[in-house]
Design brief:
By secondary structure, the chain is of the alpha+beta class. The protein is 22% helix and 45% strand. The chain is globular and about 55 Å long.
């Protein structure tokens, strides 16, 4: 399994994790978008927009401080190639993968474990967005309310519907990432995205760099929701590519503390 040209420019498996947690500086295309939307008026902070954003952010499913980590058997299927091995996510959310024969397959599996784990980190809204301002945009036909961001992450945009973030538009490591969520799962302790579509564009030209469709399935193990399946569909060199990550025999490393 060799590296694709897309991976040399941008690795969505490794960099997707930054979408929520690492505010970045605005790009020229984002500044233009914001100016076009705002006209001659500068964006002012909206209490309603901040409240909507904070409520949706705090409604995400995350692991608590007692998360013990887990081990699992893993299988990666790409076309006719199938790779198996062992996976481990530690309590500090670091990931380990072993017994995988192919180095690129091992790297891909570890990237997915990292991406999933970092999204389960429980950080306060102020820690993540304290240096940002928020303003209300338009409401689309589905009832999703656009929220534009100023301050440290100026140029970012989100959409919130039914107390969930259903669209994320961010600049990540020299690429503009837009993620639209098609469906989600209410765990009773916060929501998890089930199906979502990611688009990657050049921040200066808007040129399309890639697209991926994700389908995630989670399994409750003890008190925690753990990813048991992730399917990623994309187009590489004009051909459809499907990667299927499966995690089975999932076991927590130790009983969660009360």
């Amino acid at each position: 399994m060799g590296s694709s040209e897309r991976e040399k420019v941008f690795n969505p498996n490794a960099d997707f994790a930054q979408v929520w947690l690492c505010p970045t500086e605005p790009t020229p295309i984002d500044r233009y978008t914001r100016e076009w939307r705002s006209g001659e008026n500068s964006m002012t902070e909206s209490t309603e927009a901040r409240q909507l954003m904070q409520a949706a952010y705090e409604n995400r499913y995350t692991w608590d401080k007692n998360f013990p980590g887990y081990v699992a058997d893993v299988q990666l299927k790409m076309g006719d190639q199938v790779y198996t091995g062992k996976a481990k996510v530690n309590a500090d959310l670091s990931a380990e993968v072993s017994e995988v024969a192919d180095d690129e397959a091992l790297k891909a599996i570890k990237g997915q474990l990292f991406e999933v784990a970092i999204h389960r980190i429980r950080r306060s809204f102020e820690e993540t967005h304290g240096k940002n301002t928020f303003a209300l945009g338009e409401t689309d036909g589905t009832g999703a309310v656009e929220i534009t961001v100023g301050g440290k992450s100026e140029g970012d945009r989100y959409k919130v519907r039914d107390n969930e973030v259903c669209m994320v538009h961010r600049h990540i490591h020299g690429i503009v990432v837009t993620i639209n969520t098609a469906s989600s799962h209410d765990t009773g302790a916060g929501y998890l995205s089930h199906e979502y579509h990611s688009v990657y564009r050049d921040p200066k030209t808007g040129e399309l760099k890639g697209e991926q469709d994700y389908t995630d399935i989670y399994e409750k193990v003890g008190d925690y929701q753990i990813l048991s399946s992730r399917t990623i569909k994309s187009i590489e060199n004009g051909e459809p590519v499907t990667s299927e990550f499966s995690f089975s025999n999932i076991k927590l490393l130790q009983p969660a503390l009360v």
